[in-house]
Amino acid sequence: MADHSEHQQQQQQQQGAAAGSAPSLKLVNRLHESRSPYNGIVNVNAIELAKEHNRLIFVSIGYSACHWCHVMEKESFMSTEVASILNESFIPVKVDREERPDIDDVYMNYVQAITGSGGWPLNVFLTPNLEPVFGGTYWPGPQSSSHSQWGAEDPIGFVDILEKLRDVWQTQQARCLDSAKEITKQLREFAEEGTHSQQQGSKEGGEDLEIELFEEAFQHFASRYDPVYGGFGRAPKFPTPANLSFLIRLGMYPTAVSDIVGQDDCARATAMVVTTLLNIARGGIRDHIGHGVARYSVTVDWLLPHFEKMLYDQAQLLDVYVDAFRATHEPEFLGAVYDLVSYLTTEPIQAANGGFYSSEDADSLPTANETEKREGAFYVWTMKELKQVLGQRDAGVCARHWGVLADGNIAPQNDPHDEFMNQNVLSIKVTPSKLAKEFGLSEEEVIRIIKTGKQKLREYRERTRVRPDLDDKIIVSWNGLAIGALAKASLLLDEVDKVKAQQCRDSAQKAVQFIKDNLFETSNGQLWRIYRDGSRGNTPGFADDYAFLTYGLIAMYEATFDDSYLQFAEQLQQHLNKHFRAPGAEPGTSAGYYTTSSEAIPGEPGPLLRLKSGTDSATPSINGIIARNLVRLGSLLEDDSYRQLARQTCNTFSVEMMQHPFLFVNLLDAIVGLELGVKNVTGVLAADTQDALRERIRAEAGPAASTSTTTVAMVDIRASSQWLQTRNPLFKDLKPGTPPKNFLLVCETGSCRVVDL
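Below the sequence we write its predicted structure tokens.
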């Protein structure tokens, strides 16, 4: 109730400030119309007002779980001084980047170009034609308490920036407009990523891409690797699961890849992933009392996170922990798999309707009686609390295990606002075997104490603390990643825990069904991006929604061999091809896929530019995932048109990939499948022994099934109505023998062979 009241109070303050604006223009707060808990809303009305009253548009882009977005909201957007300037001199607009990633992408490119960095909140001033004039990220508001983190010299404040932009627009408008047009021209040229290749004149588009690029990509990651704590570069440290997946896959490809990269370097890549994932699993970035992993670590040792938990991180990390366990059989990785599965398949992240919510905030109220939110308040502990909840002896054991200190374990330089005084972020510091010797207990007793202590602390936390706010948007693209990760995890868990494996498949299936029932138009194959608070939003799906959901559906097919998933996946791919594919330089060719559809969103402005996403970041490359999907569909359906589209999509980015292959790790995976060919292992079911056949399919495919070089399928030739048998020409003439026996059909490099069972 306190959070809800605070939200209402904020809207009332904004509405009151708007009411006091200049009499020639009365701004109306329309945030309540948004489907987003971040209150994002942008429409043609704002543009029309800007043109009519000749004002700059101020756009603040963020998301619900963003810590600094909340700081700026409190310091600036709830300030009557700021509201007065904004409402009298600008057209202010808030945008949820998760609902409108197309808008975020364009202006993030701009801010990164002019400042050298980016982040959220992302704040930009635009002309009435949406061309950028000035931008940045967080700016301190009036009476900001955040100045201390910036050192001795305070940065320029938000009010100063507003006044400067107001004055410049009034006195130097022509210069502003000319500058904005020039900037937009440069952005448009930058947005031609993927068209450089077309200019080479090749029908397929660009230079030939070869798997030799893997060696250069590996060397880049090796040069930035932290051998002490794992991960890459210095603080802040992000898990970067796409890069970890690339490295762990090096040891899963056919030998042609290891021959190029080198056996020793492939082993080194695996070791880099192992060290990184172990440190993440043991670090403060992981919630050791509940479940899940925070978005990134402020410190190089993974101890102090920014505490927000994002759905896309959990999904991608689950995927890479599954691969890492298969490669190493490290027990801690299996524990991380269980932890992430538990987070994804239970409240608060999985909704009762089956969809997956987006994120949990970093900030929360320390107690129900307080009104001031603090970062990490839900997750940190004092030594006094441990003793109070666990008792003297058990608290001593657990404190040593999780690195809890009487004065707190956060260094002062990492706590500029004194939010963590005497507080501890839990991370695994001492193993049970060492604790057993230290406390004179058996290792079994130590494990029992830790397990019981974790349960008691969880119950205490749930009972006495206010949980962080939940961003309860259901976003199709992120749901697709979660569906795919759970499907993949189910195959691993089938070998050790069939009940948990079925839970993974059930949760993924519920999410698929929810999307199909609520966010998919059967009449035309269109997806809607957002569902929240009982109804869908009005934003049609973007390319990532189609790409990531298709990825998840293919994974579900390969986990269940239920044709309906594959049929749905192809339907989505066909919609992508029709509405998002960029035409190539030659007739009938493709130049990758735009982020946005060719059809405008009714009643809302389109983005300034149509971009193509080729690089991997916090979420996978859209074109990278599309290319991988196309490779798999080409193999599973024996459809060469998909292979050609995959090759053209990869070659679209060839110039950029030749220069910086490490930025395109998902596209690199697709290239291996295209260059070496895909091995398809199909189980042909003619007799009633499905389980044994499934096991033989998995065994024949091996770990390469996690790469674009191997796909798996199963056809039931006892019934002629199966969709895949009619869709794939290789399966049309398969018939049971006499007597009927199951067998494998293994197809690769243009030929097929039968493997008798």
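The CA atoms of residues 75 and 144 lie 6 Å apart.
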